[in-house]
Amino acid sequence: MTDIKAQPFPFPLQRKAVALIVIDMQRDFSEPGGFGASLGNDVSRITKIIPDVKRLIAGFRHAGLPVIHTMECHKPDLSDLPPAKRSRGNPSLRIGDKGPMGRILIAGEPGTAILPELAPIDGEIVIEKPGKGAFYATELGDILNHKDIKQLVFAGVTTEVCVQTTMREANDRGYECLLAEEATESYFPEFKAAAIAMIRAQGAIVGWTAHVDDILETISHA
Ligand code: TIU
After folding, report:
1. Which one, 31, 84, 126, 136, has least CB within 10 Å?
2. How close is the Cα of 77 to the center of ligand 1, in Å?
3. What range(s) does the Isochorismatase-like domain occupy (predicted)?
4. 114: pLDDT confidence band, cut at 50, 70 and 90?
């Protein structure tokens, strides 16, 4: 067992039981005209983390460790979109509406795709999820069980919405969770900082956080 330097204390890496999960690095959250922008957010914050997410993915691939990708999206007939989710707030475009990159957050539309720089490669699992958490209404739990995965390293967006929701779902299911700090981002810097603080508070009540360099250093030698 090799530890990753982390907060609030070292993360006890189990090399045979760890996977990277990259949450929702989709055009809809990072490009003008997508879902994130329709909610009034500055999406340029998201694109700044692409290099760190990219090198984290590359490190896992190089070490022969699994990489899982998620996408927040809905069926074209909206049958998996609760009316409460579609009607929430006052966005300029709602989920399912036609925008400049196709229908907002609908599976198969150009804007819903994972950013090309971070695209999955052959053999990597891609989970399409209708919720903020990646376990709700998906096959993720069964896939992780089947692969004997017990630890998840998290990257992606947004820190306090889909990343934190999925970390909490995973923590309750018994997974040890580690958030890669430079490889996650929020539209609100104060929410990212708060999410990181609350995740690792109280002796890692939800999980650990670590720097990308420290994660890469350990997995490359494990
Ligand atoms: N709005 C926001 O911060 N996030 C989302 O709606 N989805 C994800 O975090 N993926």
Report:
1. 84
2. 21
3. 19-207
4. very high
Q: What pLDDT, on a 0 to 100 scale, did the predictor assign at position 66? A: 98
pLDDT at 222 over 90: no
Mean pLDDT of the chain: 97
Ligand 1 binding pocket, CB closer than 6 Å: 24, 29, 39, 72, 132, 157-158, 161-162, 187
The residue from 73, 162, 177, 192 that is catalytic is 162
Q: CB–CB of 28/105 below 8 Å? A: yes
pLDDT tens, residue by residue, 167-192: 999 999 999 999 999 999 999 999 99
Domains in the chain: boundaries: 3-221
Q: How far is the CA of 24 from the centre of ligand 1 (A)?
A: 8
Fold observed for domain 3-221: Rossmann fold (3.40.50)
User: What is the torsion angle, in degrees rounded to the nearest 10, for the CA atoms of residue 82, residue 85, residue 87 and residue 91?
Assistant: -150
Q: Whose CA is nearest to atom 10 of ligand 1?
A: 162
Cβ atoms of 20 and 56 within 8 Å: the answer is: yes
Q: Which residue has the tokens 């909206």?
A: 78
